[in-house]
Amino acid sequence: MHINPDKCVGCGSCVPYCPMRAISVTDVAVVDQDECVECDICYRAGVCPVDAFELPVLEYPRILRQVFSDPLVSHPGTNVPGRGTEEMKTNEVTGRFRRGHVGIAVELGRPGTGTRLYNAEKVAQAVAPFGVKFEKHNPLTQLMVDENTGKFKEDCLQEKVLSAIVEFDCLEEQVVPILTAIKEVAKDLDTVFSLDICSRTREDGTVPSEELAKKAGFTPSLNGKTNVGLGRPLAEEE
Amino acid sequence: MTHTLHRSGNPSSLEQDYVVFAIAAQGFNSEGSIPKFEQFANIALKYNPVNFGDMKQGNVFMMEKEEILKNFKENSIVHAVFTDKDTVLACLKEIKEADIGLSIVVSGLIHDTAVACKSAGTAPHTVEHSLGIHGATEKLPSQAVRDISTMCGHGMVAFSLVEHLVDEVKKGRTSLEKASQELAKQCVCGVFNPARAAEIIEKLL
């Protein structure tokens, strides 16, 4: 984001809207370009009395900041708005998570803290040795040069984004060691992450992923997301 | 992923926080889905949600509801926010009876959602839990600020904005209602719960 210094009156109205606290005011407001994640929140907030915000034309790798930070941007190839995928939201139709499989997502930088992409690479490299299946439609997976190791393209690692999701599918029996590895790598990160887990319910309504998370020493939340199974046509059962 | 997950708070506060949304599976049933989004929206709006929006357009605090209803896309994700489980149940029942064919997700207390599913004549298909926040948690603000900010899963409601507006209410420069609506305006998808935000802010005064 760019603030036109010739227009800005230095009122500071925009300052609290920036989730990265990247805007400061001396005589006029200035955006710290290294901290800015190009989420456009300041622009959309519409609080500038003199329309001093100017949307820059972004090129690679900086455009990655916008792709991972502005939820109004849909990803080419998936047509899904936001920085993630449809994941379990459409599972009854897509059959993405089958019985016996578990979905895990590690969202770096969430809540509200942001992340450099090197943190995401660290997590990807921690889980890749388990042979996990990284979600191919996730924009982060598309930055990997080797899904077997979780290695990312070198030129993207320093880019800062609002959040980025390492998203994968694994077998039920892999869940406990994978969650243990995630706990370990958490110590090497300079940001926070929100962790989640999902699975198809059993016939009796119990949730395998919930049980496995408890076994790994985590406390699953009381609230969460439930796909209530009304999408049609239904995916064929395996 | 998970734009309505990871909403933090104590159980009594979370009892007042449900998001019901509709989504089409791209490449599976997205073609011709626009009238289905309209059908879902018209049902959801009958139950007076405290927020309503489309991830492709915006929410009712940013634009007119009628404008949103006219401009759904095949990749829209349409949300309605409610503050009690009974309303969610009634809404879900009507959605089930309408047999719309879009995927419907309820974000809220998982046990109560399962009960609502049963009463509505359906059952949880897939369930997703948050396993909490990890890593450099010393960077996080107070729990109350997080409880408000996490109601926008895309991080559009900055911690600093919550802190600023709480301060403005304390100083009498704005009202609880205006502050919570200003917060809701930032969350473009319309999944932020301004009623719950107002309650949390009130406790901070």
In short:
The complex is a heterodimer of chains A (238) and B (205). Chain A is of the alpha+beta class.
Describe the structure.
The complex is a heterodimer of chains A (about 240) and B (about 200). With about 240 residues, chain A is of the alpha+beta class. Chain A has two domains: about 1-55, Alpha-Beta Plaits; about 75-215, 2-Layer Sandwich (Alpha-Beta Plaits). Chain A is about 20% helix and about 20% strand. Chain A contains six helices and 13 strands. A four-stranded antiparallel sheet of chain A has the order 7-11-5-12, covered by helices on one side. In chain A, helix 4 packs antiparallel against helix 5 (about 175-185). Chain A starts with a strand and ends in an 11-residue tail after the last strand. Chain B has two domains: about 10-120, Alpha-Beta Plaits; about 135-205, no CATH class. Chain B has helices spanning about 10-15, 35-45, 65-70, 85-100, 110-120, 145-150, 160-170, 175-185, 195-205; strands at about 20-25, 50-55, 60, 75-80, 105-110, 125-135. Chain B is globular. Classes of the chains: A alpha+beta (about 240), B alpha+beta (about 200). At the A-B interface, helix 1, helix 3, strand 5, helix 5 and strand 12 of A face helix 4, strand 5, helix 5, strand 6 and helix 7 of B.
Largest sheet of chain B: 5 strands, antiparallel
Structural class of chain B: alpha+beta
Helix content of chain A: 10-25%
CATH H level, superfamily name of the largest domain in chain A: ACT domain
SSE diagram, text form:
The complex is a heterodimer of chains A (238) and B (205).
Chain A: E1 2-3, E2 23-25, E3 29-31, H1 41-45, E4 53-54, H2 63-69, H3 91-94, E5 101-108, E6 115-116, H4 117-127, E7 133-134, E8 144-146, E9 151-152, E10 160-161, E11 164-171, H5 175-185, E12 192-200, H6 208-215, E13 223-227
Chain B: H1 11-14, E1 18-23, H2 34-46, E2 51-54, E3 58-59, H3 65-70, E4 77-82, H4 85-98, E5 103-109, H5 110-120, E6 126-135, H6 143-149, H7 159-170, H8 176-186, H9 194-204
Antiparallel strand pairs in B: 1-4, 1-5, 2-3, 2-4
